[in-house]
Design a protein that fits this description.
The complex is a heterotrimer of chains A (286), B (279) and C (280). By secondary structure, chain B is mainly α. Chain B is 70% helix and 2% strand. The relative contact order of chain B is 0.14. The chains are: A alpha/beta (286), B mainly alpha (279), C alpha/beta (280).
Chain lengths: 286, 279, 280
């Protein structure tokens, strides 16, 4: 689990150009959570998650982050252990591919953790299979020859092969078409079977509503609250005060209510809305 | 997000901003030459005064200009220290000595002058880039170099390349940061002291960086083509460079300063010698 | 004669493994002045290739692309063609030539060789049209994604093209940025009567257009008005979703309700409300 306590962060401290990115953040992400982090561009989402595997060092007297008993505010952190534990997938992860074959690229992470060649290769092959690619066909190809969607899967496999216990994803579906989006989200659910904790930053409220069990709303570097999806998307006042976009289903539910069709506004998926509409129209009918 | 102070335009309305970039470039060259000739504390003070006046006139916050010194602070400290401890003076007794290091009064003077000169050399180009847009600078450069077109030098293309470079450097720095972080998250160690390991560790950063630079270049080329670019042929400018009376006054003024500095440092004979050389 | 005409256009390129990939197969369609067209298709359907064929960035391997009667394979016509067709690309960071917003917008008109006063006028007008006048002097690094993309639109607009193509121009933006860009594009189509081809895979965006062309594996799978939503097979076959309200409407119809085929979210809500009222 990840415990964030009173975390603050300042860019370019002690210069005239100081900007505070995070203000006194408190969060608790538990094992098994599918934890969503939302907020507009510049709200501090990426800065916050970059603390989770010490890519950003915690500044002096700026709070603490504890990942499964590893205190990240300590002077010396066992980075290898931490990075084996927390897998980080950045925006457009395909931009980090570099090796001449897919297999070698995926083995990069495990080998950095000190795992021997044979096992690293085994892990890489398993990861390729897990992300839904054909190992025999793809392992020896150059990652630069693949299609956009395949590249993203390879990049994901590169992180999965490190066998993380916590997976942090920064907008994993950005730039993909609807089918690609769905496939990546299905893939993340599959990964979640082995890697119980998933933290996801997203601008796509439909995905957040459908997949997350807890959602932290960030606004201008502050946590506006942590909610269950029904709490958050069911309350227009809350959404308004947090400055959150409506998911499409909520938007439709609100519109329907406005015209006198009494559907529950806290619906999260297309199916739920469908049932609600049937019920609303049908019940009146009966 | 790293801040790159050099090459970042600071919008404001000031006489320095409005000046013709060609004149600004000529004055900059004049100024740099003059700083090289500065020799006495008086002449350094004199130049610093004019730099300060220019900054004040430009309405750019002075801290913004001084920030450019951050980039050279290591070189600055290092060279002045070296100058101080390795300066040898046979005419006077050292103030202090440790083994092979001797510190002389003249050594301290020389070190201060060196540091001061370095700072002056960085400050004024910073003022130039803060008060002129890259387009202005490139147009100015293109106009100044245009006589070279006779020699079939691609002056326009060179100026454009410079402009695009200024535009893309901050993006590339940002990109590098992102890739470094992504590879660090995959366990890459850039902290190794072994230089060979360090170079090897850079490969996972350099290759994606090259790939993305080529992609950027391709996309930019498409965007430029789509916007009817076909080289210098038939191209006009929105902001036509026009020399104003004040530009000539400023140029004359800086010429006078140069002459003053040279006069301070050399007797007339030496001055004549310099003139002869430059002819 | 149509403004833009594709006649049996073929295009292939050499992919990895040296195999020839056929990106477009015998594509024919035409676009008239003032039309608002959405071109939809999943990744790899050939959308971006098609955009680049429109203004001669790519030349067709077979067939012909005609802009106002001029072929894009005629090198001498390219300048004229690019004056008439502008493209806004996906990545807002890779389209700016220089570091100041107004200088960048001026780049196009400068290439046209216009006198300085007219360039100034066009730049001011273009920035005002996209609502970015107040940022004329700033650098791109202070702007949001949506703002940068609006600057890119202004850069194309200043050339005064008759057709603007947006090649997944909203793909990298957050929902706010996407809305900003869509509003600007709708306004330009309405007020300036500029033809627009909006390439996208956001079906809610495509629903804003008057005409939808569905591209699937390099061929046109469907071409028509919003009534295309009545035949969801073409979208599904092309790996695309229908807009949420269309999906729901179809399911409700199947379940025995009558909500017809609504073409906007508001129409959907109204139809459901009516169905409820009717049953009451």
């Amino acid at each position: 689990m990840i415990e964030v306590k009173n975390l603050s962060f300042v860019y370019s401290p002690k210069t005239p150009f100081t900007t505070q990115a995070l203000f006194d953040i408190n969060l608790s992400i538990e094992t098994g959570d599918f934890f969503g982090i939302i907020g507009s561009t510049g709200a501090g989402k990426s800065t916050l998650v970059s603390h989770f595997n010490a890519l950003t060092k915690i500044q002096k007297n700026s709070g603490a982050v504890i990942v499964d008993e590893i205190d990240l505010s300590a002077k010396k952190i066992d980075l290898k252990k931490l990075r084996a534990k927390v897998g980080m997938v950045f925006q457009y992860p395909e931009h980090q591919l570099f090796a001449d074959t897919v297999l070698k690229d995926i083995m990069f992470g495990p080998k950095n953790l000190g795992i021997n060649n044979a096992e690293a290769e085994q892990r890489a092959r398993d990861a390729i299979a897990l992300v839904g690619l054909d190992c025999a066909e793809i392992a020896e190809r150059s990652p630069f020859e693949l299609s956009g969607g395949q590249k993203r899967r390879v990049a994901l496999a590169g992180v999965i092969a490190m066998h993380p216990e916590i997976l942090v994803l920064d907008e994993p579906t950005a730039g993909l078409d609807p089918k690609g989006k769905r496939e990546i989200m299905d893939l993340i659910l599959r990964i979640k079977a082995d890697c119980p904790t998933v933290v996801m930053i997203s601008h796509n409220m439909d995905e957040i509503a459908e997949y997350c069990n807890k959602i932290a709303v960030l606004r201008r570097g502050r946590v506006m609250g942590v909610f269950s999806p029904r709490e958050l998307f069911g309350s227009e006042e809350l959404l308004e005060s947090c400055g959150v976009e409506l998911p499409l289903v909520t938007e439709l539910a609100v519109k329907l209510n406005g015209l006198g069709v009494a559907v529950d506004k806290s619906v999260l998926t297309e199916n739920e809305l469908f049932e609600e509409i049937k019920k609303a129209v049908g019940v009146k009918n009966a | 997000m790293r801040d790159v102070s050099m090459g970042q335009y600071y919008p404001a309305s000031s006489p320095v901003h409005r000046a013709d970039p060609r004149f600004k470039l000529i004055i900059l060259i004049l100024y740099l030459v003059t700083v090289f000739f500065c020799d006495s504390f008086f002449s350094f003070g004199f130049m610093t005064l004019f730099v300060l006046i220019t900054i004040l006139l430009s309405r750019v916050p002075i801290l913004k200009v001084l920030k450019s010194l951050r980039l050279i602070i290591i070189i600055l400290v290092f060279t002045t220290l070296l100058m101080m401890i390795f300066y040898s003076d046979t005419t006077s007794a050292p103030l202090a000595e440790w083994g092979i290091f001797h510190i002389y009064l003249n050594g301290i003077y020389a070190a201060i002058k060196l540091g001061w000169r370095l700072m002056l050399l960085v400050l004024m180009p910073t003022v130039l880039t803060l008060t002129s847009t890259p387009t202005e600078l490139c147009d100015g450069l293109e106009s100044l170099l245009s006589p070279l077109k006779v020699l079939h030098l691609p002056v326009h293309e060179l100026a454009l390349i410079m402009s695009i470079a200024l535009r893309l450097i901050p993006s590339l720095i940002e990109e590098t940061d992102k890739i470094v972080n992504a590879q660090r998250a995959r366990g890459a160690a850039f902290e190794s002291r072994n230089p060979f390991k360090k170079i090897k560790a850079m490969i996972p950063v350099l290759i994606p960086l090259f790939v993305s630079s080529f992609r950027r270049a391709d996309e930019l080329a498409d965007a430029m083509d789509s916007r009817c670019y076909r080289g210098a042929k038939g191209r006009t400018r929105m902001k036509k460079l026009k020399a104003k009376f004040s530009d000539f006054v400023a140029l004359l003024f800086w010429c006078a300063i140069t002459v003053c500095i040279l006069f301070l440092n050399y007797n007339w004979l030496g001055w004549a010698f310099i003139t002869a050389l430059s002819l | 004669m149509s403004f833009l005409e594709f006649k049996n256009v073929e295009y292939s390129y050499v992919g990895g493994d040296d195999e020839l990939i056929q990106a477009l197969k015998s594509v024919s369609f035409s676009i008239e002045r003032g039309e608002f067209v959405a071109l939809v298709g999943c990744n790899g359907s050939g959308k971006s290739t098609l955009a680049r064929l429109c203004n001669g960035l790519l030349a067709p391997d077979g067939g012909e692309v005609l802009v106002d009667g001029q072929s894009t394979t005629d090198k001498r016509a390219l300048f004229d063609i690019r004056k008439k067709i502008g493209i806004v690309f996906q990545n807002p960071d890779n389209q700016m030539v220089t570091t100041i917003v107004e200088d960048d917008v001026a780049f196009g008109p400068e290439n046209l060789g216009l006198p300085p006063e007219e360039i100034r006028e066009r730049v001011d007008w273009a920035l005002a049209s996209v609502g970015m006048s107040e940022h004329a002097k700033s650098g791109p690094f202070r702007l949001s994604g949506g703002q940068k993309q609006r600057v890119a639109i202004a850069g194309v607009l200043a050339i005064k093209p008759e057709l603007m193509i947006l090649d997944e121009a909203t793909g990298m933006l957050d929902p706010n940025g996407r809305r900003e860009v869509l509003e600007v594009v709708k306004k330009l189509n309405r007020d300036e009567n500029m033809a627009v081809i909006m390439i996208t895979h956001f079906m809610e965006e495509a629903a804003a257009a008057d005409r939808i062309i569905v591209l699937n594996k390099g061929s046109i799978a469907a071409d028509g008005g919003k009534e295309l939503f009545n035949t969801p097979e073409v979208f599904e076959g092309a790996g695309l979703d229908l807009p949420l309200y269309v999906r729901l409407a179809r399911r409700l119809n199947d379940a025995g309700m009558d909500v017809g085929c609504p073409l906007t979210a508001d129409e959907f809500a109204a139809a459901v409300a009516k169905a409820q009222g009717g049953k009451k």
